[in-house]
Structure formats: structure tokens, C-alpha cells
Amino acid sequence: MAEMDVELEQGLKQVADLIQRKVIEPSKRREAEETELSEEMKLQHAWSCNIERVIFTEAQLKKKVKEMAIQISKDFEGKQLLAVGILTGAVCFMTDLLKNMLIPYQIDFMSLSSYGKGTTSSGSVNVKQDLSFDPAGKHVLIIEDLIDTGNTLKWLKSYLMTKNCASVKLCTLLDKKARRTETDVAVDYVGFTCPDEFVVGYGMDFAENYRCLPFVGCLKPEAYQ
Ligand SMILES: O=P(O)(O)OC[C@H]1O[C@H](OP(=O)(O)OP(=O)(O)O)[C@H](O)[C@@H]1O
């Protein structure tokens, strides 16, 4: 069995054991059965054992995303909005953001990568999947989970400029300002400034894991080894 599968298996056993031993209260078990997992149970989630610290809780994310959706809806009112999500990290943020929008929009995706399995940018952007239709004439809103060096965004903005879009704006949930090397790229909507740590959860990964966590946190050093 792969190392991560063993960890997952162990995590699930821990949760089952806590329920069996009634460490988790019956009322909370009922909540879990009704699909609204309690905060404690979420922290017991299989991969949460590798989390050193929760940086943004689910409640904080929910509130911020709603505020952002309202602001964006006001700014794009009356415009043909095309929301372009950058796979894969932005999926959780994007779906929550769009669910809270008050105006109509179209959706498309691009898949880009510059991190691979590590925690540092390779510096070059790899297009794994391009837009599926022509964005010409549309007001494009790029939706990112996180801006780190700014390399991906700089490349993306100049790429979309060649497509005759009416405008190109950028929205990100997290901005790691301290790590920016591309300082001349404007970010139009930012959820939170992110500490200079490698973060996971709410769509963000380390080697494709942890995207499923409902909060944003940083990993224990041993989880990288
Ligand atoms: O500002 P930068 O240094 O360019 O980093 C930001 C990019 O890195 C992350 O994607 P990643 O390559 O990790 O792919 P993923 O979304 O599939 O996890 C993130 O979603 C951004 O697209």
C-alpha cells in the first residue's frame, strides 16, 4: 500500500475509533451523519494529522468569499463576464465564489502548472489545458487560489491580452506578497494576505494531496519528507 494510503487508512481508523469510544459526542455524531461535519471532526480528518496550524478557518473563508462575490458582482454589473478558473487549486474557491455571485456569467477553465510535485516554482508555466472557447470581447475574470511569485499570473495576463478580451482582471483568494518577484502585475481582488509558508487545503495541494481539507493550513515539516 502507498505511504499516503496507509496514512489515510490510519486517519479513518482514528475517527472511527473516536466515534466508537464516544470521544466525539453523540450530538456531534448526529451532525456528522447529517453531512455537516463538526469542526472537531474536520480536524480529525485523515490528512489533518499532518497540519501544523490552521491559518484560515472554514468560517473565515466562507465570509470572505461571500464579500468578494458581492464586490465583483457590483463591479461587473451589465458586463459580459467570463470567469476563468485556473485548475486545479482554484476549484473550491471558484465554486464558492460563483455560487455567491449576483450577476450572470460564463465559465471556462485553464490548467497551468509551474510547481509539479515540489514546493518551489520551476519558473516556467506549462499549459496543460487551454480555454475551451474564444474569450474575445468578454470581460475576463481570472480566478486563482494563490499568487506566490506572480510568475503564473504575469504569463497568463499577457497570454489573454493576445485574445482580444474586453478586459482582464485577476481575483485570488490568497496573496503571498512577501514572495512576489513579478512586482508589476496588478491583482484586482485579494481575499487574504497569506503568510510566507507553503499552504494546503481548500483546493491547494502538496503533491496532489490535502486539496480536500475545508480550511487552509500549513504542513508539519515531517509531512514534506
Ligand atoms: O505565483 P506563482 O509562483 O506562479 O504561483 C501561483 C500558482 O501556483 C499554484 O498552482 P500550481 O502550479 O501549484 O498548480 P495547482 O493549482 O494544480 O495546484 C497556484 O494555483 C497558482 O496557479
TrEMBL record:
<protein>
    <recommendedName>
        <fullName>Hypoxanthine phosphoribosyltransferase</fullName>
        <ecNumber>2.4.2.8</ecNumber>
    </recommendedName>
</protein>
<dbReference type="GO" id="GO:0004422">
    <property type="term" value="F:hypoxanthine phosphoribosyltransferase activity"/>
</dbReference>
<keyword id="KW-0460">Magnesium</keyword>
<keyword id="KW-0660">Purine salvage</keyword>
<dbReference type="Pfam" id="PF00156">
    <property type="entry name" value="Pribosyltran"/>
</dbReference>
<dbReference type="GO" id="GO:0006166">
    <property type="term" value="P:purine ribonucleoside salvage"/>
</dbReference>
<keyword id="KW-0963">Cytoplasm</keyword>
<dbReference type="GO" id="GO:0046100">
    <property type="term" value="P:hypoxanthine metabolic process"/>
</dbReference>
<keyword id="KW-0547">Nucleotide-binding</keyword>
<keyword id="KW-0808">Transferase</keyword>
<dbReference type="GO" id="GO:0032263">
    <property type="term" value="P:GMP salvage"/>
</dbReference>
<comment type="pathway">
    <text>Purine metabolism; IMP biosynthesis via salvage pathway; IMP from hypoxanthine: step 1/1.</text>
</comment>
<dbReference type="InterPro" id="IPR005904">
    <property type="entry name" value="Hxn_phspho_trans"/>
</dbReference>
<dbReference type="GO" id="GO:0000166">
    <property type="term" value="F:nucleotide binding"/>
</dbReference>
<keyword id="KW-0328">Glycosyltransferase</keyword>
<dbReference type="GO" id="GO:0032264">
    <property type="term" value="P:IMP salvage"/>
</dbReference>
<keyword id="KW-0479">Metal-binding</keyword>
<dbReference type="GO" id="GO:0005829">
    <property type="term" value="C:cytosol"/>
</dbReference>
<feature type="domain" description="Phosphoribosyltransferase">
    <location>
        <begin position="60"/>
        <end position="206"/>
    </location>
</feature>
<dbReference type="GO" id="GO:0000287">
    <property type="term" value="F:magnesium ion binding"/>
</dbReference>
<dbReference type="InterPro" id="IPR029057">
    <property type="entry name" value="PRTase-like"/>
</dbReference>
<dbReference type="InterPro" id="IPR000836">
    <property type="entry name" value="PRTase_dom"/>
</dbReference>
<dbReference type="InterPro" id="IPR050408">
    <property type="entry name" value="HGPRT"/>
</dbReference>
<comment type="similarity">
    <text>Belongs to the purine/pyrimidine phosphoribosyltransferase family.</text>
</comment>
<dbReference type="GO" id="GO:0006178">
    <property type="term" value="P:guanine salvage"/>
</dbReference>
